[in-house]
C-alpha cells in the first residue's frame, strides 16, 4: 500500500475524530450490537490482532487510551490486510452528528426556554446549528447511528428525528448542565433519564391536580396575607409559586426513596409559605405573629420570617420529619449550620451513606453567586469530616436578586449557579412557569443525590412579583421588567388553563380550589393533611433535661486517681509494631509519668485526660480545626503517625478511640482551610447533638475573625432569639508572645461585648487542671451554653502552668484563683493585681524580681459569667489594700479592661483606688516588631510593680 493510500485508510483514527472513535469502541465493549455493523466488524477484527509490542489484549480491559493504540497500529499498517476500509464520507458525517449531539448536551441550556417573562430573545448558538458541522438539508432524512443516546431503542435515527429529540430534551423548559462532570457513569445516568423521556414528564391526572393544588396554596396564602396584613413584610413568593410544588415533591419523593428526615435552610423569600403549606404550621399561629403575639419564654425573640419549625409529615413513602432551620438575615450563612445539623442526625442514626437524612438548601440567585460561605460550604461536601451524602440545592431565581440592582452588577458568571461546578454538581435550570417540568427535575435531582451521594442543583427561573419586600416599589429602578411582570397572569392561572384545555379539570374546578383554600385560611385550619400527631421519632433528641436550668459554676468533675492512672496508661500506649516519631515517643513517655503521678500534668495531658474520661463515661467527642489532630503548637498529638507508613495506608493510631470497651466515639478532624463554614457546621452539629462535646479549634485565635457572622448571628444570640440551646466549645489560642498582630489576639473584647443573659461562657484557663475540669464541666452540668476558651500558646510548655494529678482527682474548675504564694501576708498587702491569662506568670516573676511582698495577684479564669461570690471571697482577704490594679497584655481599648472594671469597682471599699497597667490603646491588636513587643511587655510589668503606681486611678 502506498503511503498516501495508507494515510487515507487510517486518517479517521486521528485528530478531532479520536473522541468519536473512542466512544464507539467503548460502546462496542459494553454492547457490540450498539454500534453500526461496519464498525462492529471493524472492532471484531481488532479483537483478533496483537496489541503493540506483542502484548495480549482482552475485551474487558480499560480502553481510555484506545486511540493511542489505534494510532500506533495505523502507523505500522497493522490493519491494512485485515480490515476493510470504511467509507470516509459516511464516517465524516457520523462524526458531525456526534459533535452535534455533544453540543446540545453541553450548550442546549443556553437556548432553553427558561425565562417566564420572555424579556430577551433567545440567543444564537452556532454550535446547535447542523450547518456548523457541514450538515445540510439533504442530510436531515438520512439515517445515522444514535450512538450513546437514549432517544430510541433502535441503533439509528434520521438526523431530522434526532435533531427534534435533542431540541425537545435540552432546549425547552429544562436546561441541563452536566457535561462538566468527570464521572462518566453519572453523566450517562443523566443523559438516559433526560433523553429517554425527551425531558418531558408524563404525569397522570391525579398528579397534575396535585401540582395545581400546590400552586393554588402557594398563591392563595400570599394573596390572603397581602389583603389582611397590608404593607407588612413577608417576602412574598408570588412569581415563584412553583417552589412549593418542588418542595412537596422533595418531601413525598424523598419519603419514597427512604428519606426519614429533611433539614431545610432558606432565607426569607417564600419562608412563610413553606411553613404553612409544606410543614403544616397552623395559619392561625402565623396570623397571630402578624398581629404582634410572641413567645413569652424568649428574652428577645425574632421576626416571623427568621423563625424555624419542625413537624412530622405523612408522605407517599411514610412518615418524614421536617426541620426548617432558624435563619438570620445574613442569607446564606445558614448553609453550613444545616449541614452540621444533618451530619449530627446522620451520626446519631448510624446513617453513614446519608440515605436517611437529607439536607435541602434554598438559595436566592444573587446571594448564591455573591456570598463566599456558599463556596466554603460546597467545599465541605465531599470531605470525610463534613460530607452529608449530598445536598439538594434549590435556587429561587428572581433573575435580578435585590430589586434595586442592575443585573450586570450581580455576578461575573453566566449563571448564578456556576460556583457549584467546582464540585462537579449537575444543575437543572427550569422555567418556573412550567410546574410539571419543575416537579420532573425535582424527582431527577433527588434520585441523582440518592444514587451518587453528591450535591445537585435545581435552578427555578422565575420572577418576583412584588419588591424585595412589601414596602418596596421595584418599578422605581426596574420599570420595564415590572411592566412585564404586571401583565403576567400568574403561574397558577397559566397551569390551570392548561389543565382545563387538556380536559383534566372542568372549567370551574380551579376557582373552586381557590375558594376552598381561602376558606381553610379563614377558619384558621391546617392546610395540609394529614400531619402526624402521634408519631414518635426514636432518633429525636430530648432537650427537656437541658431547658430552664439555672446557671451554676459547680460540677462534680473530679475523677478517682485509680481511674486517671488506668486511663492515662491506655492513652499513652501504642500498638506493638507501631513506630512513633522520636519527639512523640518522648511526649508519650512524659505523659505516662504524669498519669502515674510522677510528674505534674501539663495542658496537653489535662486535655487528653478530660477527653478520655468523657468518652469512657459515654459522651461522644468531636473536635475539628485546621490542625486539630496534631495541634497547631504540636501539643495535642491525638493522632499518632506510624513513621514507616503513610496515613492513608492505616498509618495512624488514635489512642482516644481505644480508652475502654463500649466507649463513646472520639472524632478528630483536620478541617478544610475555612473558618466561617466550618464554625457554622460545628454550631449546627452541636445544636443537634447536646450529648456530644463538639469543639472547634482555631489555628490562631485571630482567625476567628473570618467567622464573626456565625458568632454574632448564632452562637451568642441563638438562645435569646430562637430558644436554641447549644454546647459548642470554641478553642481560640490567645497570647502575647511577640508574634505580631495576626497571631496574638482572639479578640477577647468582642466576645465580652456580646455577653448578656448568661448566653455564653468566656474562660481563660491557666493550668492543666483547669482545662481538665472546664471541659468535663461542659458536659456534666445539665445545661448547654457555648463555651469560648481562650487557650494558651507559651503556657502549653510552661512548667509553672502544670498541676499535680491530685488536682484532677479532687478539685473542680475554679472561676477565680486567689494568691497561691504562702509567703504573702494578706494583712501586709497594699496592692491587689487582678489579671487573666498568661500575664499572671509574668507578673509572678516580676514580683519576685522586684521583691514586692505587699502585692497579691488574683487570676480571673472565667471572665463571663463573672463569678461575683468567688471573686469577692478572694478579694476581701486584703482589707488593708489601697490600690487595685487590672493588668493585661492586650492594648487598653482591647482585652477585658472595659468589661472588667465595673466588676472590680463593685467589690472595692471606700478609699481604694482602681488603676490600669498594660499597653496603651492601639488600632492594631499587637505590634509586629519583637523588640517593640518586649519593650512594651517590660513597661507594663514595671508599671504593675512600681512602688508608686503612676497610671490613672479611679477612687471608690
UniProtKB/TrEMBL annotation:
InterPro entries: 2-oxogl_dehyd_N, 2oxoglutarate_DH_E1, DH_E1, KGD_C_sf, ODO-1/KGD_C, THDP-binding, Transketolase-like_Pyr-bd
CDD domains for this protein: TPP_E1_OGDC_like
Principal EC category: oxidoreductase
SUPFAM superfamilies: Thiamin diphosphate-binding fold (THDP-binding)
Protein's recorded name: oxoglutarate dehydrogenase (succinyl-transferring)
Coiled-coil regions listed: none
Keyword Ubl conjugation: no
Family: Belongs to the alpha-ketoglutarate dehydrogenase family.
EC number: 1.2.4.2
Keyword Oxidoreductase: yes
